[in-house]
Amino acid sequence: MRKRIAVIGGGIAGLAAAVRLRDLTPSGTEIVVFEGSPALGGKLHTGELGGRRVERGAESFLASGSDGAESAAVAFARRLGLGEALVHPAARPAALAIGGRLTPIPGGTLVGVPGDLSALDGVALPASGADVDRGRPLLAPGADVAVGELVRERYGDEVVDRLVDPMLGGVYAGRADRLSLRVTMPQLAATAETEHTLAGAVRAAQARSRRVPGRPVFAAVGDGMSRLVDAAASAAGARVVLGLPVRELSRTPAGRWKLIFGSAPSPGVDEVDAVVLAVPASPAARLLGDPAVGELAYASVALAAMALPAGATLPDLSGFLVPPGEGTLVKAATFFTTKWPHLAREPGPVVVRVSLGRAGEEDRLQLDDASLLAVARRELGELIGAELPAPVDSWVQRWGGGLPQYAPGHADRVARLRAGLPEGLALAGAAFDGVGIPACVASGERAADDVYRFLEGN
Question: Chain-centre distance of CA 389, in angstroms?
């Protein structure tokens, strides 16, 4: 009998699951993607600014993993026929904005955590004599702590505040003192179970990395991330239901899954044999009937993009990060047309994209778009030491509750949750397996594998 599978959530994790299911299942299998918003892609969306393509969400992804193999995102792009469309950023440095000046980010760190304290170039003053061998590994097997807790104890406050916090903030919009080491830095967590000093653990994690020297660290789709979304939707061959969120999910007496979707006055009903649930924590908790799932906190951020007149001068950098202690709403900036060579070769305005807001700063984002743009332009000018010309075009993109904040113990909580799931239901997405396109693609593909194994046995 022909099987029917529902993928609830049309972000990149859900789309990766749908494509994998199409590859694995017989040709007659029906796949239905339910997306509550009006469009697929989640936080992947390419916009237009001053005649240029500029991302309104994620702008790039890791090109390879720590094992040296190409990342799940690159492999996914190749599966979709987009291998030749991948582009890489220019080899330009990034900086930190500290004390009113831009200073190069020290090399050789692991997400800001140095393995050699002598290489900090004055950016941060490490605590003296704290990282000593105390006769035992830094972490017990399977233990988890906040990144900030471990690094402050061993290296002192300045290394966390000036290096680790802005690096983690650039990815998660969170604070090192609240983010799980095991989720955000799994390689370091693994070596901390055997090494007796933090410097030794960082060096061991770096030694284990098999990244190929000279290979680009990041990649993007040259025509924009929306092309990746469109190609995934096409490859999945799924029936797509947009703008009608799934409100209820329950098991039928026959062992199938019943979905109720759309508005309460006129709901739609569907039944499927298996489900991939690829939505954020709160809707996942509602559909699973488990409030604990929804306890994951999220940070809200905003992006302000400005198209400056052609010829506008910016520092010769790919961008910079801002430590929270600087007090600015701006936490990062990308000099878009400098960073991406394929855009620099095209005529048009100079584009800068600014990220605003960190976890716990939601109230500071409660400005209208014009006011938020004014803050972004003023603070950016102060941080680079030169007033910016008036932009010829601009936009603001808000991602309310957009970035999960993984507290210590997150991985164990997710493992327990998955162990208690009924057969035929799999979880995917950033709420469970980490932010970033490679993590979400891999999560969706694993969920599809789980569902396929269930269907094969039934």
Answer: 31
- The SS3 of residue 190 is helix
| Rounded mean pLDDT, 92-106 | 92
- Residue 49: the pLDDT is 95
Please identify, among 381, 404, 427, the residue that sits at the C-terminal boundary of a domain. Answer: 404
Contact 105, 98 (CB under 8 A): no
- Same domain assignment for residues 121 and 191: yes
| Cα angle, residue 184 at apex, residues 179 and 189 outer, rounded to 5° | 100
CA dist 319 and 354 (Å) reads: 9
* Stretch 349-355: mean pLDDT: 96
Within 13 Å of residue 294, how many CA atoms lie on the same side as its CB? 10
User: DSSP of 276-343, one letter per residue?
Assistant: EE-S-HHHHHHHHT-GGGGG-EEEEEEEEEEEEPTT----SSSEEE--GGG--SEEEEEEHHHH-HHH
Predicted pLDDT at 412: 95
Side-chain half-sphere exposure of 69, counting CA atoms within 13 A: 7
Half-sphere exposure of 117 (CA within 13 A, CB side): 19
The residues, any chain, with a CB within 8 Å of residue 123's CB and separated by 6 or more, are: 96, 98, 103, 105, 106, 162, 163
pLDDT tens for each residue of 286-305: 999 998 888 899 999 999 99
The pLDDT value recorded for residue 342 is 87
Of 256, 290, 250, nearest in space to 416 by CA: 290
Could you tell me the strand order of the sheet in which 425-427 lies? 239-242, 30-35, 4-8, 274-277, 425-427
| CATH code, 256 | 3.50.50.60
Verify that 285 and 354 share a domain, yes or no: no
Quick one: which H or E segment has residue 94? Answer: strand 94-98
β-sheet bridge partners, residue 242: 35
Nearest to 176 by CA among 192, 202, 157: 157
Q: How far is CA 153 from the centre of its chain?
A: 27
Reference 380, options 421, 331, 345; nearest CA is 331
- pLDDT, position 41: 97
* 395-407: average pLDDT: 95
Asked whether residue 278 carries a pLDDT value surpassing 80, the answer given is yes
For 219-247, write each residue's pLDDT tens digit.
Answer: 999 999 999 999 999 999 999 999 999 99
Has residue 346 got a pLDDT over 90?
Answer: no
Interatomic CA distance for residues 169 and 334, integer angstroms? 14
Residue 306 confidence (pLDDT): 97
Structural domain boundaries, residue 363: 51-91+297-404
In a domain, residue 133? The reply is: no
Taking the C-alpha atoms of residue 172 and residue 309, their distance in angstroms, rounded to an integer, is 31
* Cα-trace Rg, the chain: 23
> Whole-angstrom Cα distance, residue 163 to residue 141?
27
